[in-house]
Amino acid sequence: MKLLILNGPNLNLLGLREPEIYGNRTYSDLCKLIEAHAAAIGVEAEVRQSNHEGVLVDWIQEARGKFDGIVLNPAAYTHTSIALLDAVLAAGVPTVELHVSDPDTREPFRRISYVRPACIACVKGRGLEGYLDAMDLLKLKMEN
Ligand code: DQA
Fold first, then answer.
1. How many degrees, rounded to 5, is the angle at CA 24 between CA 18 and CA 26?
2. pTM of this structure
């Protein structure tokens, strides 16, 4: 089973950006955490990050027929991007929306998620460990 873990804008700055919200661990720490968990649960995981909406669209399209699941943290594009919603719908790959923080308890503009209707679940407010929960969810979904 192959999972694609996609991260949107500014997530490369984890550990530096607003540590009171996103914590002190870095993007590289996140990659290591995901790799270790993938090995532990016996799945392959490819982790990517881009600050560019179109690149994320390309990667979601690429997942069709190549990956069994996507963990998608669209970051700020969550709240703006119909293109990402359409890409997830078009790809037809089970996708879990992921947020390190809980956007629903923050500023009102973060309460809108355009991608949520296309996703099988949303994991939010669990810190970096949320990525691992999302991977477990996708694995369970594949097995059932
Ligand atoms: C985020 C939440 C978004 O509102 C924000 O724009 C981000 C990160 C999260 O992981 O908590 O960049 O997706």
1. 100
2. 0.98
Asked whether the beta carbons of 2 and 142 are under 8 A apart, the reply is no
- What phi and psi, each to the nearest 5 degrees, are found at residue 94? -50, 125
Residue nearest to atom 9 of ligand 1 (CA): 99
What is the identity of the amino acid at 14?
A: L
**For this structure, is 99 an active site residue?**
yes
Question: What are the structural domains, with CATH classification, of the chain?
Answer: 2-143 (3.40.50.9100)
For ligand 1, atom 7, name the residue with the nearest CA. 75
| Per-residue pLDDT reduced to its tens digit, 21-67 | 999 999 999 999 999 999 999 999 999 999 999 999 999 999 999 99
Q: Ligand 1 pocket, 81 CB below 6 A?
A: no
Token reading at 81: 């991007």
131: exposed, middle or buried (C-beta count within 10 Å: 0-12, 13-18, 19+)?
buried
